[in-house]
Amino acid sequence: MISRKAQDRRMYLPTQDAIDCDVHPAVPSTKALLPYFHEYWQEAIVTRGIDRLNLDLTSYPPGAPLSARADWRPAKGPPGGDLEQTRRQALDAFGSRIAILNCLHAGQVLHSEDMGAAFCRAINDWLAKEWLDREPRFRASIVIPTQNPELAVEEIERRAEDKRFVQVLMLAGDEMPLGRRHYWPIYRAAERHGLPIGIHAGSNYRHAPTPGGWPSYYLEDYVSYAGAFESALLSLVAEGVFVKFPQLKAVFIESGFTWLPACLWRFEKTWRGVRMEIPWVDRPPAAIVRDHIRFTLQPVDAPPRAEQLVRVLEQMGSDRLLLFSTDYPHWQFEGGAALPPEISGARARRILVDNPLETYPRLAETLQPMEKERLS
Amino acid sequence: MTIDVLERNPKAETRLTVIDCDIHPTMGSLSDLNPWLSKRWQQHIVTYGELVRQGLAKTLSHPRMQPAVSRADAWPPNGGLPGSHLPFMQEQHLDPNGVAFGVLQPLRPNGNSQRNLEFGAALSAALNEWQLEHWTGRDKRLKGSIAVTQEWPEAAIKEIERHAGNPDFIQISLPPRSDEPLGRRRYWPIYRAAVEHGLPIGLHVSGVNGHTSTASGSPSFYIEEHHNNVQSMQGLVTSLVLEGVFEEFPSLEVVLIEGGFGWVPALSWRLDRHWAKMRDEVPHVKRPPSEYIREHIWYTTQPIEEPENPADLIHLFDWIGWDRLLFSTDYPHWDFDDPHTVFKVKLTDAQKRQLFSENAARLYGLG
Fold first, then answer.
1. Per-residue pLDDT at A117
2. Which of A34, A84, A90, A160 is least crowded, fewest Cβ atoms below 10 Å from its Cβ?
3. Interface pTM (ipTM) of the complex?
4. With an 8 Å Cβ cutoff, are A302 and B65 in contact?
5. Residue A19: which H helix or E strand, with range?
């Protein structure tokens, strides 16, 4: 039973019933994953001392201000490592109905395809047991070893029956541009199972993050991640991924989106000039992007003045592109202000609920009938 | 709009003055540089050629979409390459388009990308002499860009000092895709020399540094490689600002050439937001990054941004600053912007004067 007081409080939450499309659970330690490995890997990991290694990603130093908002930083352990705290701060505080867990860990970074696949498998099973089984509002993304598409497809197939897994997760910075045919088996499997491809900020750093090489500072890296998404967008469209897989959706997660209008202007203009190079792209790229690519809300990377953000939202050219996210525990906003004040009314409703439901078909499938009605 | 005005028979006082900040002069072959190369380097070209960080020795690995990347009508009647014949350039572009000054951007040979630094420096030096001999010396409207081998700063500074007092050179040319991000300290001696001599740094899309144009490797297609030029530009702006280059050299002026400008607002917003959270990592950056960008960076206009709603171009200019934009055509390349048709929005006469000539005249001290 929900108390009267709680109900009253709920009515005032601008994000009530939201579907939060980006929450980050942290693997507390390599040891914590150990029970989820096959016997061979358990022995190898212990023998080699890998269980004593810290496998934090370069893309998200746990101590960096961005990686955890001060009031979301746990007393001990990595930010996002505590389920109880995540439930309270990421779900209850925003009144979110659902949160999609995107676990950023070592699986996609390791050079061994086999070890990468073993880590992804362990992470997915750990997510199912330690997070999804313990909180019905959580959903998760299937972490896959993009190093080897065959192994990645195996992992998708292994996990796809569990409808609490609602998308496939990749990093924006990978071995090769994300539209390349290398990845198409992954996209084929994802499309078959109604799973969008979630592309998250960050990189396995097979390549320098900028065309000018390796920057000095983390701040530069983080700012540059938006550029990695722009390149991924170009690649997915130019290679014809959405022509080949017309039901596929890609979700750019923690990508920012204020860069999108200028990106589309340039893409359209260049395409008009040189479209003979990619004849399978037989309609304007902006239309393809608006049909197939979605963007999580945070970070908004908002301009200083309200009317500028409103203009950017208009320039996006569709109210179906943004999906609500808090990016918990990453620090992108203060207090409960996940939704910028410029977003309200029908536009807010689309971002909070409708767009996520349209993007992730599995969300509606796993809701109880009463909940579906409440959200419809 | 703009077209209507220009299509009327222009009286002298209403005729638009154009400073074209991106014109490409070309040479037939590297041997055109022989007059300024030692016997060793002349022979080196014949024996070994260029050694750069990519798989094809004589051309880029994303073949372009047009012969010589050029307008079909830009091939001179004498049979040379587009941009190789001054009289034809005058007849086709400089005279009819009212070009009062034109800024040269020779792209080949790329002394800035050679792995053999001595060879690179020799090429850069010869390229500068070639600009004087064949272009600026023959048409006083044309102004050169000092080519340097930035990975060998001592040689670069010698080259800058050789030409800094010559009014035929108006900027120092660096490649956006240098070996390391351009804000890093190895390049500071070049910025110091630029400031001492009052020369802007011009960064025209170029450079073969062995890094791919995206964080996920090399794209398959030219359409991607071309678009990703905006990533080079954003990376170098971010690097210059966050390394504190503009704190160290408060009078440094930087011109981004052919790298677009539609990305500037979003990059500025993103930089400001995340700098506010993580400024403890870059304590030498004293002010919001957008302020340095607003004060230190200029942009050439070609290829002009084409927002879906043309009026958004005005908002873009408002944000970036009307005083920061420099008209350019990219003659003789395929995506040439014609001064008569480039802007699809209504501009006031004062705005046109700013974009077409006044900003460039002030920055480069022309006119």
1. 98
2. A84
3. 0.95
4. no
5. strand A19-23
